[in-house]
Specification:
two-stranded antiparallel sheet; 20% strand; mainly beta
Length: 174
Amino acid sequence: GTINAMLLCHEGYYCPEGTSFINKPDNNSSSNYAYADGEADDFFRTFNLATPCPTGSYCPTGSMEPLACLPGTFQNITGNETCKTCPAGFYCELETTTPVICPPGSFCLDGTRYYNEFLCPNGTYSNSEGLEDEASCTSCTPGYYCGSPGLTAPTGECREGYFCRGGSQLETPF
């Protein structure tokens, strides 16, 4: 085999500093494999192959170490060069491997980064998980008010002598 020090670690893999490359001596393949320094001259020594990128991270071409998937993204498969966008109805924090279902009182758009990034607004609530948009929040029940964002149930009944229509934000509406 021949040494080619100009090769970069392939996408989806990382090669720690000090890793060099040698062509695999196989006439049917031109794939390149990584060897530890000093081992490139002897094909029969143990390979120090490039390491597949772990879940929760990504490895573009030339990576010396895995890069964490940023909030709003995830990666559930090893050996990838990019992260996937977190799907609606779920949120993904830093280095997420499996998206987490959006909790009651919140909704999660594509790319949601944390559990309370998008709360059901005043006048609404939700006691269900996995809401994908604001329209999925429930309008406050007539006779009750929903006085703050992120509620899982109405705040309470309207004050005596007042009538709250559906979606009321105040216990004493005009």
